[in-house]
Structures are given as structure tokens and as C-alpha cells.
UniProtKB/TrEMBL annotation:
Pfam families assigned to the protein according to its UniProt record, in alphabetical order: DUF485
Name of the protein: DUF485 domain-containing protein
Keyword Transmembrane: yes
Species: Heliobacterium chlorum
Keywords, comma-separated and alphabetical: Membrane, Transmembrane, Transmembrane helix
InterPro entries associated with the record: DUF485
Length: 120
């Protein structure tokens, strides 16, 4: 049984792929990639949450507006709920597009740099 404050693991020096990962994760290019991803993802997540919670808040605080019939039995709340699928798809499409143009090219550049160092 371990005494209080003792750990069941020991700190080891990185080796092989661990050392390579440490080098990559500390590189400026990788940090730039993480900043670029955060620059896209944080606003996208905030927008998605705001859009998602707008429906229940609107139904709760503005029931007369959300209950307005658009056509037949379909009211504004139903259309808003349906629109959330399209907004989610749009955000996913935008992420895939940005990732394909920016993030993936940066990842390939990082991988080429690592491969170039390995061949030296």
C-alpha cells in the first residue's frame, strides 16, 4: 500500500515517438496550427451553442412569436428547430473546408519537416 503523497508511476524520459512528439508539440509551427484551429473552433462552438439554446429561450420568452403559423400547422418554432440541422451541417462543412485548405497543409508541412530530420 502506498503512503500518502506517493505516486504509483515514475517520471521517465521520452523515447522514440514520445521524444518526437515532444519536439513537434513544442515547435512554433505546431503551436501556430493549434492557434489557428482555436481561432476557428472557439467562435464556431460559441455560435453553435448560442444558436442551439436560442430555440428553447425563444419558445420560453417569446411564445407568441414562435407560435406564429408559417404554413399549415408548421409554426416558427418548428422551422427554427429544423434549421438547427442545416446550421450544424454548415458549420461542419465550413470546418472541413478550412481544415482541408489550412490545417491539413500545415500538418503535412510538419510531417515533412519531421521526415526530413529523420533522414538526416
Amino acid at each position: 500500500m502506498a503512503a500518502a503523497g506517493e505516486t504509483h508511476w515514475e517520471l521517465k524520459q521520452p523515447r522514440g515517438n514520445d521524444a518526437r512528439w515532444a519536439e513537434i508539440s513544442e515547435s512554433e509551427e505546431f503551436r501556430g496550427l493549434m492557434r489557428a484551429k482555436a481561432k476557428f473552433l472557439i467562435p464556431a462552438i460559441i455560435f453553435s451553442f448560442a444558436y442551439y439554446f436560442a430555440l428553447p429561450l425563444s419558445v420560453g420568452y417569446f411564445p407568441n412569436i414562435m407560435n406564429k403559423k408559417i404554413f399549415g400547422p408548421i409554426n416558427l418554432a418548428y422551422l427554427f428547430a429544423l434549421s438547427q440541422f442545416f446550421v450544424a451541417w454548415a458549420v461542419a462543412f465550413l470546418y472541413a473546408r478550412v481544415a482541408g485548405k489550412k490545417f491539413d497543409t500545415t500538418v503535412e508541412r510538419i510531417k515533412e519537416n519531421v521526415r526530413g530530420r529523420d533522414s538526416e
